[in-house]
Amino acid sequence: MTNEPRDRKKVIATTEELLAYSLALEEEAVERFNELADQMEVHNNHEVADLFYKLAEIEGKHVENVNRAAEGKQLPDLLAWEFDWVDEGYSPEGGALEDAHYLMQPWHAIELAKHGEQRAVAFFRHVASSATDAGVKKLAEELVAEEEEHVALLEQWQERFPRPEEDWDDDLDPPTILE
Amino acid sequence: MSRQSLSIALSGSGGSGVMTTGSMLLEAAGKAGWYGIMTRSAGPQIRGGEAAALIRVSDQPLESHDDSFDLVLAIDPASLGRFMGEIPLREDSVIICDMAGGRRDASLPETLAREIDLPMKKMAKAVKGGRPNMIALGVLARVIGLPEGSIGGILEKVLRAKGADALEASQACVKEGYAAGAELPAFSGPPITDVPDGERWSITGNEAAGLGAVRGGVRFVAAYPITPATEVLEWLAGSLPKLGGVLVQAEDELASINQIIGASFGGKPSLTATSGPGLALMTESIGLAVCSEVPVVVLDVMRCGPSTGIATKNEQSDLNIALNGLHGDAPHLVLAPTSLSDCIFTTQWAVHLAEAMQTAAIVLSDQSLGQTRAIVDKPADIAFIAKRNVPEVVGETYRRYAIGDSPVSPMTIPGQPGGQYTADGLEHTEAGAPSSLYDDHLAQLDKRSNKITNFNFGEHWADIDGTGDTMVITWGSACGPVREALSRLRAQGTEVRMLAIRLLAPERPEDMRAALEGVKRVLLVEQSHSKQFYRYLRAAYDLPAEVKLFHRPGPLAFKPGEIIEQLSDWCGSEKL
Amino acid sequence: MSRQSLSIALSGSGGSGVMTTGSMLLEAAGKAGWYGIMTRSAGPQIRGGEAAALIRVSDQPLESHDDSFDLVLAIDPASLGRFMGEIPLREDSVIICDMAGGRRDASLPETLAREIDLPMKKMAKAVKGGRPNMIALGVLARVIGLPEGSIGGILEKVLRAKGADALEASQACVKEGYAAGAELPAFSGPPITDVPDGERWSITGNEAAGLGAVRGGVRFVAAYPITPATEVLEWLAGSLPKLGGVLVQAEDELASINQIIGASFGGKPSLTATSGPGLALMTESIGLAVCSEVPVVVLDVMRCGPSTGIATKNEQSDLNIALNGLHGDAPHLVLAPTSLSDCIFTTQWAVHLAEAMQTAAIVLSDQSLGQTRAIVDKPADIAFIAKRNVPEVVGETYRRYAIGDSPVSPMTIPGQPGGQYTADGLEHTEAGAPSSLYDDHLAQLDKRSNKITNFNFGEHWADIDGTGDTMVITWGSACGPVREALSRLRAQGTEVRMLAIRLLAPERPEDMRAALEGVKRVLLVEQSHSKQFYRYLRAAYDLPAEVKLFHRPGPLAFKPGEIIEQLSDWCGSEKL
Amino acid sequence: MNDTSACSRLGPKEYKSGVKPVWCPGCGDFTVLGSLTKALSGLNIAPENAAVISGIGCSSRMPTYLSTYGFHGVHGRALALATGLKVARPDLTVIATGGDGDGFSIGGNHFLHTCRRNPDMTYIVMDNQVYGMTKGQASPTTEPNWEKGKLTPSGTGINPFQPLVIALASGANFIARCSSSDQNGTAKVIMEAIRHPGFSLVQVLSPCVTFRPEQREWKKLVQPAPVEATSDPAQAARRLLTDEGLYTGVLFKGHRPPYQPTLESTIDQVTELDEEFQL
Amino acid sequence: MNDTSACSRLGPKEYKSGVKPVWCPGCGDFTVLGSLTKALSGLNIAPENAAVISGIGCSSRMPTYLSTYGFHGVHGRALALATGLKVARPDLTVIATGGDGDGFSIGGNHFLHTCRRNPDMTYIVMDNQVYGMTKGQASPTTEPNWEKGKLTPSGTGINPFQPLVIALASGANFIARCSSSDQNGTAKVIMEAIRHPGFSLVQVLSPCVTFRPEQREWKKLVQPAPVEATSDPAQAARRLLTDEGLYTGVLFKGHRPPYQPTLESTIDQVTELDEEFQL
Ligand SMILES: Cc1ncc(C[n+]2csc(CCOP(=O)(O)OP(=O)(O)O)c2C)c(N)n1
Ligand SMILES: Cc1ncc(C[n+]2csc(CCOP(=O)(O)OP(=O)(O)O)c2C)c(N)n1
Ligand code: SF4
Ligand code: SF4
Ligand SMILES: [Mg+2]
Ligand SMILES: [Mg+2]
Q: What is the predicted ipTM?
């Protein structure tokens, strides 16, 4: 949302920088899934809430992994908007909030998570292909592989749930009015 | 009049559709010849929150919930906790609930009631596109004794838009539920009678107020949305254009009230509807209507205050501001419906009175009256309509604020030649020219006050009922439970009088004296923390020496049994 | 305490400068050691209209005009007619008037008084740059017995800016007039005493209220101009910056009240001043201050209502709206000064109370108190200042709306680490989170009500005076004439008690019971058409069986003699 | 009152009520009263078919001085009251009058929304950049460094409100500026404004000789805008943002259709509404 | 609460109060909450030194969800309350938040006058072109032909309110449009807005998924404005009048000095004021 064009021009130059990206990505994913879980809980969609909490937990492990990889390194302190993600202004999980729905089903939740992971794959792939630093390239490729694995896991998980019917978001009741 | 009734609470959450289910059940009950009421309660979420439909059906007209509920159906157990304060249960009450696995769900609140597990989700899953709430509908219809056919037409009406598949799925679920209901304990519902088509109405108090307004002649409405008045406006927005009228959604309440003053100045009976915060914004200009003698009606559907308070819950705490919230000496009318269907009459009468006296009328409805849906007898169509004193021909020297034989002076309407004048919120002479003299001020204050205190209001100022030397005085939505309490007492042979005040201002000292003739003890019932009704009565009337006050703030509704308990000192021991 | 006083009316029109003349005369009287009051009356024109300065001087402090005037000086005869209702004359009163030719001017109203022709215009013409009002000043100074020198300094002060020529011309005129006065009947003014410099003040009630506000600690004011409150604001606009405070001229009253709520939330004691129409616009947000427990003070300088009414004239008809004009159950403080100089104390006390109880206080001053200028004894500097319960350190779990030992919970101020909370006009939990539950609602309603009803107000709730079994109960600007009436009766040996209520809300039932001990008869005095004070007292207190009401709308002020007349049935015949 | 049945034109005088204004001699509002009566006469509107609505302020006293129907309402609400009247009675010629304080300070919200809503009526604002009636406080149009306002003794220090720019931005359909020093020119513009469909704003620079005596100089400073009225909002905006507030004439004429719900009934009887409640 | 004395930056999460929002899942306001916490974190403002002020509406629930000081006031009055706070406490970072109904309908007058007055604070409006909280009525920014508003079943038929144009015309010092679909971009703009002296308006297109589900498409329609922010009002006006309301970014940055009276006393004691009354 800046006035600059959306295409990603910046090349990630150091592994520290890439780790900072990776950390931000995972941390934001944790935050996002927790937020979504809270939303579902508030809206009495407990099944999906539990699923999101679970996803948050998993992402939390990824944060730990990155932290471990970053041990002893001095990562740059970038603010949210100083990250230069691929094609859009937010991190791969950034858009998920908009896709929430109070009647969403586990299938949707995983779809949403999968979408994020796929975007992460795309991002790291881009980093790998544009990298000039060999270390960065290598790390990015590892990350691609890791995220691809996540996508695959999610796909398996999703199969356990039926695909929602077309009118899954139907609610005959009117919205509650407040103030 | 002994009443056989059944009270049912239906709760759910996360978009489980309990409101729709409840409405359908109520309508089915109505079709079957029963009377009924349904109120809603909901959590703070706009979508997907906990929701409960509280339903009561009977062979007699109803105006109140019962002391306790016979049957609760919880589509999911967790939804119930929030509402337990509003759903008192007995030992012989029954909770039907989906325990999802047979074991008692920990989230189900502890109660005395008997719990029955019914796997509604599973049953619904068995039907393609099926939903647990439709299972519930079938179950409920069966256990309260509605004929299976009573649901069909309603399903069709509600689900037509959703397509044939959805309809079929629902029908199948209802059938499933109905069958399952046969296994459950049955309740002996009120006797089913035959009612001729169309003799019963299904209506909310908010719709009733809208209907009263247009029956009274209102053709211009300007308003700003606010809970719980919005449904009045929604109904009027749809209905006014049919009658050549219009509703304008204004930018705020200051605009609403001034727009209706302008339209009424132009000759169109006009109304606005709002709730406490909006009423507060309007008081300056309600004073303008009073001073310039332009008739307007302001409907306040009360909610819990102060400030934003609790917007979706009932309270009777705008009495103070309605009676005394205008600056200066600004006599005006304040009315309150004494029942849900009386919202028609009282609003209509208010329009009539405002027009007849060329002043402002505030009608105090409340969230409970306004948002309850009831099956009622078709209301009478009464004769009160707006009739303003407009001179046929205008003489040489028309004086808008003339003090003649009647304090209501003829009012010309723009377009009438020779009738031009300037309506004014400044103090003025009879001709309408600004004046700061004591004599003019006194004369106009007298005029504006006399016209409303001298008016012949007839018998409508209050609903008076019963005999005996004990009386309950109350108003608004508190009337319903009081009325039921007294009818229960009557059934036991105890007579208690009831006075439900419809016209709160101006005061009617003589009528009150007559009503209190022979009364030794008075119980006042009101839903306000600061005893607003009590203070009002003290200021306005001479009450008997023995006065007892039963008051509490919203949102907990009064129950008939509580009223009886309050009277027990007097009626229990002495058996009056 | 017998009072010797002289009442003088000075009228003119078309820019004749009577107000300036009147002020100078009052100041001269003050310098000479007299007490005095001056009120103004004017036609509807902004410039050049009829105007009258009504002055009374005495050797005793004054709070009221007398029953009649001793002396009228009309710079032109026509100006007088408009004010005759306010200037009752006796047979031995004197009218000094410029008949411009010696024949009685037809425009001079018929009165009992003796008329004296004085060619002031001609006399002024004889002086280069001379003006009739300065002639009048000299005349008046002479006939009421002021030393010639008493005017000099004042002339200089007022006319300095106009240049030496203007000053000289005025001096010459005053001299002329003083000399001419020697030929006129002299009045025996009050004895001239020596007063130490600076021990007397010249102040209006509006300035006094402003002073009380800043003494109480107010440092933020937002307001929208409105007559007759504007002078409070003018004074504050000049004074606040000296104290590191500020006055913001807001876009309307909705902004004013919300700005002060914001500033007070930020920790600054805050106030707004307005009159009836503005107060009406503020009530919604006063409710917000009540619900969110943010202290604010709203000063209402009352004028004639309803609606725009008569903006420049006195009435006590905003009592209803001040007490009961908020929607919902919204307990708050309502106070009224009992005299002009009490505007300092009452406003200051209101700031203190609002801050101590974290609630809204409405102070009802009025046009008469506010716009009268008086020479008074230097007011005491009292100790009440804003002291809010702000926690020194904030614990782990700060709950803004905690219900602890005291219903006034500690209030953090933005900037305090760990004290963050969200102030809310929605009903809330102790922590400030929105809640729609009955229990939270009741608890917070109790809290907000208890904190003001349980507060120890001490003796300031009312001014209580005198003995006997007859009592006059009154308030605001009506206190002045009542006090004088009772002191006159006392001088005749008749004792009547007086109760001037300063704290109108919350009610003080025990204090009232004590005050009424031994009282058999009560006369209520109020300036309202609809008996607002009477109704308030009926609702709030148990009055003795015999209650008499003396009320009328504005703008005619009560006179001491009228009060005595009202009491004559009781005191005249029975000589209590 | 006047016999208005004749087809001959009523003279401007006949639009006066005969109540004598209490304005200060020299006040611009006298001239505006004259302009308005001339415009009404020029349009030959029967006095009973016009209604003049105002709030509170010196300028808001206008209705009392006219022989039309009038409403002297409360401070700041003239446009809301006038909107209600016009929507309910589209047959009437509705004119709102008032001052800069009434219209742009306390009444600012209605100003915005009336421009937006665009009812077919005319709003004449006598702008004297001061609150005349309450003793000369700064108004929204007062320049930031005017130090005579007793509530703003060091000047307001804030940006003056630009009524014409705001009107344009919120959708007024006709925007003009006049000077009370030109009674006939103002009359003509008011007439055009009344004729133009939709909401018309006429700002009249009308000196307050009592609290802003320096405004007597205005008549020397105003000048007719050097260009014709435009109907392009962007062009109008550019002009208005750069003019010094002293160009007079019609500055913008838009073509948005006025807000006017049709008031035609589709059913005969109120009882036909009962159906929807029948079980 | 948080220990804010450390010089290390607080993370965005620490600006959340922990109260779980009651907004509908998918509502744009969730994202805005995130943007605001990121901006506060980016500026490293201690939570106790910020105050977030709102009126009533879904979007106005914001303060409850933040760990800063907050005020959830009454409908339409957020800016007035915030102004009082900022003027009295210039040391605080004051942010007002709310919706299009709260800010532009009932609150329109304060919007106008706050832009004019230009206090140093930031106003974030979550514009969903609807009254979410009260059941989906048309708001001032609703398009005229939207027929789902139950009080305007045939559409409002009136000109939408153009908040940015009005802000510019009344003197706001910083004007930006964002989309809730871009949390980080919005965060950056909010941070810039807070930093920029004077009154900053940030309009965030924030879908109401319940009453305006079609707004889920907004994220595909918005695009960054193709030009840099200007500081020339006339240029900004031309751009704003012609854009379709879907360009995002900082659109105007002015240089007017903020309104802030100095709060320095010139006397020591209140009693020094007594002098003027002494005879
Ligand atoms: C609610 C309310 N607030 C304040 C006032 C006081 N008041 C009356 S007129 C006025 C200002 C008038 O200014 P303007 O509209 O410019 O008219 P002018 O006198 O300059 O023609 C004010 C503040 C009022 N009557 N009502
Ligand atoms: C004085 C007053 N009038 C009306 C209302 C009812 N009300 C509450 S919120 C709201 C509209 C909110 O719309 P918006 O500001 O756009 O917020 P959103 O819910 O869309 O975020 C209204 C009309 C009120 N609370 N107070
Ligand atoms: S005060 Fe000013 S605006 Fe009012 S009448 Fe006098 S000159 Fe005109
Ligand atoms: S109703 Fe609309 S604005 Fe309100 S929370 Fe739901 S989606 Fe958001
Ligand atoms: Mg003006
Ligand atoms: Mg909105």
A: 0.97
